[in-house]
Amino acid sequence: MRRAALVALLSHWRRRPFQLLTLLLGLATATALWSGVQAINAEARASYDRAAGALGATPRPSLARADGTPMDEALFAALRRAGWLVTPLVEGRVETAGGSLRILGVDPFTLPGGDLPEGAAGDALDPAFLGLPGRLIVSPETAARIGGPELPPLIEVEGVAPGIAYADIPAAQALLGLDGQLSRFVLLDGQPGNRPPLDEVAPGLSLQQPQTGADMARLTDSFHLNLTAFGLLSFAVGLFIVRGTIGLAFEQRRPMFRTLRALGLPAATLLWLLLAELLVFALIAGAAGIALGYLVASALIPDVAATLRGLYGASVEGTLSIRPVWWLTGLGIAVLGTALAALSSLWQVARLPLLAPAQPRAWARASEAGLVWQGLAALGLAALSGLTIWLGSGLIAAFVMLGALLIAAALALPLVLYGALWIGARLAKRPLAQWFWADTRQQLPGLSLALMALLLALAANIGVGTMVSSFRLPFTGWLDQRLASELYVTADNPEQAERLTGWLAPRVQAILPIMNTDARIAGLPGEIYGVADDPTYRDNWPLIDRLPDVWDRVAAGDGVLINEQLARRTDTWSGGTIALPGWPGAPVVGVYSDYGNPLGQVLMGLDALRDRFPEVEALRFGLRLPRGEVAGLTRALTQDFGLSAENIVDQAALKAFSIQVFERTFTVSRALNVLTLAVAGFAILTSLLTLSAMRLPQLAPVWALGVTRRGLARLELVRALVLAGLTMLCALPVGLLLAWVLLAVINVAAFGWKLPLFLFPSDWVVLGALSLAAAGLAALWPALSIARIPPARLLQVFAHER
Amino acid sequence: MLEVRDLKKTFRSSGEVQQVLRGVSLSLERGATMALTGESGSGKSTLLHLVAGLDRPDSGTIVIGDTDVTAEDDRGRAALRRGKVGVVFQQFNLIPSLTVAANIAFQARLAGREDAPWSARLTDRLGLAEHARKYPEQLSGGQQQRVAIGRTLAAKPALVLADEPTGNLDEETGERVLDLMLDLVAETGAALLMVTHSSRLAQRMERQLHLERGAIRA
Ligand SMILES: Nc1ncnc2c1ncn2[C@@H]1O[C@H](COP(=O)(O)OP(=O)(O)OP(=O)(O)O)[C@@H](O)[C@H]1O
Ligand SMILES: [Mg+2]
User: Fold this and answer.
1) Nearest C-alpha in A relative to B151
2) For residue range A37-51, what is the model confidence (pLDDT) as tens digits?
3) Residue A179 domain-assigned (yes or no)
4) Which of A11, A259, A267 shows the shortest C-beta gap to B74?
5) Which of A73, A102, A148, A521 has its CB 3.0 to 4.6 Å from that of A526, i.e. a possible disulfide?
6) Which residues contact A628 (CB under 8 A, 6 or more apart)?
7) Which domain holds residue A182?
């Protein structure tokens, strides 16, 4: 019984291979976009974990100079002699032909074996590793990336964090140009209780808590949540295709289901067979989707890695490894998605009345009744989304709100279209026009899912596009303000700095020393800057919140400025205070925007910084001079003064670099956006193609009454354009709302800064034209097939009833 | 073979209650043929659907062989349709994506008792041999109806229920199809209950029953 029934059920697909292809393709695309994003996230997380474990699974506190400058090797012996259990570390970055590499110089004899990655401990005791030239222990991926004659030979060990190389102390010192110097001392377990205090043994060193992987995770979580949200959106859009195809396939097979039941197939058996059929499809499409997702992920991961490096300083390997968990979740999500998409169709089959006459209009009428429910659901979701934004806070609430908003909009779309078509029908005078509007309305149930997908894709495009453009405008303006000095120079050491300022004094309008030091602020890594009192800052600095005499107070050392992300994180605004190392109750006199910086930042007067951090040296200077003289001065600096070229940064170059980092941040969002739009276009094409097969009974009478096939084809095209145009109009407010949520809620929660919303109507015109073109293209094929349909096929409609 | 006792059925649609069957009784022996006539809307199809277990009566009993149809659940009634009862519908209800041959063999396969030589012989007798590989949409109305008849008979049911099997055919073709059906029913020894509008066709049956506003008029 089951075999015969299954053969009959499957025979439907054999006669309609294109429908099957659509179903599989839709499901595969949905799975691909979802699992691609998941793969990127998983890869990045794995990188963080490995990086966090770069020196042992349990991060240890260490001793170092407050400003992070290296210290003499002799200190190590002094500390050990005094009874401090420490192991030395030399840290730094080298640039190789294949990108930058973080060098960790370790002492294999005092470093506990468990603190090295598994498998590396043995290699670290190899005589070849010790001394000079020594060896570098790196992961195979890193080994494939880097290279260059200046590096010692590599030892490849699986499980070493990406972008990190372990070396013996002398080898690391040689590589980093730190002969005889160490970066910090890592404190080991089991320190004796009676050791002398640190000040006696090694004055100038302070205890520093480890930077844990959790810090990195906290910083990057928001980025990954953003990606996940996009993956989910693309998945949802893909599911609309699946939902549409399954709905149509079930609708077309409804008479068959009825016949099967009438011939003695129990309802439960029919349901199980359909479930099994769908499961097989889900598994096939899921597997294809995962393979596709792998391609998507490998195409995107270099940009993601660059973004994470640029925004958060997180090191992620730009390659993918295939993980079994990923395969399983991918298949799981494909099955789940199919179940979701097929739910209502299966429900209808379960309740299929055995005897209802087969009416072509029954489906449309049922959908019309469902419209009321859909409208109510849309209202409910809209209310939920409003409530979430009003009562909730944080990233999760924002995404819940976004989800509710988008689904509500999608559900409301058919209702709005119905209304618009109804008005069209009322206004139409000529009979053909009346038929056109009525027929379009009858088509709506079959097309509404594809149109919903289009709505979501368009709204996402408008939303993200507006966000990116809104971002760019203040960002470039902000760059102009922040990078007010025309030239930035760095001296190698204090003596050179002094000579440099003396040499520069007669040649420029102003020399603005920039001093900075790293410090933990509000429990997270941050940075403190000292700036001179100069109109450059007074006139340009992008303050978003200030006390009246802000610059006087900063110059007098009576207050500090903090950046927006620090202000939001600690909820401290001007008038409040913030705890800094060495200045527990620093008054906050202003807040400034600081886009793209993951760190909390504090700005104070130069004197205030010198008082509290005497060890910080002034090596960096901003120079004010007429724009036209920049090139000449740069040349003079290198040729006459002898400053090396890499110590001179032109403002223009810095800006270009910053904008490039910024642009890459949105590459991934934009790529997913375009993919989503393409998927929606595909959804329209498939819906139209599937519908066109069912259209003959409606078209044949109109043809018989004297409308040419070409005329009918033209009307089909017009219909697609009208519907796409209406959908674009609906997408506009939804997209703008989306942009507002992204800018005012999600950005604040994710990155810590808020941006003003700017409107770019010309972008909408382009997008509207694009969606019309997509709909027109999608309708072209079905329209052509109507124009070329043999009259015999049309006559068949009259020969048989359905 | 078939015993129907005091069958009642009402339909409620949009608040209106309509009593379609008001106590119908009839019986049919093994191998017998009976025509069911009556004007449109008199309840013929409704009666046939109840007998086939496609719907439930309000009251009354239907016994086929030794099975009380009214006491069976959905699964049991489905099993009945796979086993003892075959229905030829007013609409042909062929499976559009299966070939003529597959359609004819279909119910027998569903019932798990395919008899390939018998199906082949049926196809031949019904004059469908040359169309065996075509799909239903490529056939004329009369040909499609013959496929539906073949499908029912291929499963060798003990009771054949036919709802105006010739209603969509011209008189001459209708008569030829009926001849064929009577021949084949006689060959398998099945009982036949057939709804028809035509009194001429009704005369070809052993017994005639007339339904008038939901009740039997002798
Ligand atoms: N599902 C239903 N819901 C409501 N009323 C129904 C339903 N099915 C049938 N009826 C009503 O029951 C009455 C009998 O219908 P039935 O189909 O049995 O008539 P019939 O004798 O077969 O007519 P015809 O010769 O036209 O086929 C009709 O008035 C019809 O409107
Ligand atoms: Mg009838």
Assistant:
1) A263
2) 888 777 777 766 666
3) yes
4) A267
5) A521
6) none
7) 60-209
Closest Cα partner for A64 from A179, A211, A168?
A211
Contact between A586 and A578 (Cβ < 8 Å) = yes
Distance CA A309, CA A632 (A): 34
Last residue of a domain, one of A209, A236, A268: A209
Q: A7 — contact with chain B (CB < 8 Å)?
A: yes
Phi, psi of A436 (to 5 degrees): -55, -50
Query: Considering only CA atoms, which residue is closest to atom 7 of ligand 1?
Result: B11
Strands B33-37 and B16-28: unpaired
Mean pLDDT of A171-191: 81
Strand A560-563 vs strand A205-208: parallel, antiparallel, or unpaired?
unpaired
Q: Are A99 and A141 in contact (CB under 8 A)?
A: no
Residue A244 lies in a domain: no
A507 to chain B, any CB pair closer than 8 A? The answer is no
Q: How many residues are listed for chain A in this entry? A: 802
Answer yes or no: do A256 and B91 touch at CB < 8 A. Answer: no
Asked if the structure places residue A123 within a domain, the reply is yes
With H, G, I as helix, E, B as strand and everything else as coil, classify residue A318.
coil
* Centroid of ligand 2 to alpha carbon of B19 (angstroms): 16
B17 alpha carbon – ligand 1 mean position (Å): 13
Pairing of strands B215-217, B33-37: unpaired
Which CA distances in Å does A113 have to A58, A214, A560, B137?
13, 23, 45, 78
Which among A1, A255, A800 has CB closest to B110?
A1
Flag whether residue B95 sits within 8 Å of chain A, measured between CB atoms.
yes
Contact A494, A764 (CB under 8 A): no
Judged by a CB distance cut-off of 8 A, whether residue B75 touches chain A is: yes
A583-592/A510-521 β-pairing: unpaired
Do the Cβ atoms of A456 and A406 come closer than 8 Å? yes
Out of B96, B110, B141, name the one closest to residue A264 (CB): B110
Vertex A671: Cα angle to A670 and A675 (nearest 5): 115
The residues facing A137 across adjacent strands are A155, A166
Res. A614: pLDDT tops 60: yes
Residue labelled with tokens 């499809």: A281
pTM exceeds 0.90: no
Which stretches of B130-170 are DSSP H helices? 141-154
**CB of B187 closer than 8 Å to CB of B149:** no
- Going along chain B from its start, the domains and CATH numbers come out as 29-58+71-217 (3.40.50.300)
For residue A127, give the amino acid letter: P
Residue nearest to atom 25 of ligand 1 (CA): B40
Q: How far is B74 from chain A (nearest CA, A)?
A: 7
Q: Report how far residue A289's alpha carbon sits from residue A281's, in angstroms, rounded to the nearest whole number.
A: 12
Mean pLDDT along residues A478-494: 76
The dihedral sign for the CA sequence A205, A206, A210, A215: negative
Q: Considering the domain boundaries, does residue A436 fall inside one?
A: no
* Number of domains forming the structure of chain A: 2
* The pLDDT of residue A56: 47
Cα(B44) to centroid(ligand 1), Å: 8
Q: How confident is the model at residue B34 (pLDDT cuts 50, 70, 90)?
A: very high
CA of A635 to the centre of ligand 2 (A): 101
Per CB-CB distance under 8 Å, the chain A contacts of B141 are 800
Angle between helices A324-350 and A17-52 (to 10 degrees): 140
A259-to-A11, A57, B166 alpha-carbon distances in Å: 14, 65, 19
Contact between chains at A800 and B81 (C-beta distance less than 8 A): no
Q: How far is A442 from chain B (nearest CA, A)?
A: 24
Q: Closest Cα of chain A to B107: distance in Å?
A: 7
Read off the pLDDT band of B210 (50, 70, 90).
very high
**Residue where one domain finishes, among candidates A593, A625, A657:** A625
Phi, psi of A570, rounded to the nearest 5 degrees: -100, 0
Residue A213 scores a pLDDT above 50: no
Ligand 2 is an ion; its neighbours by CB within 5 Å are: B 45
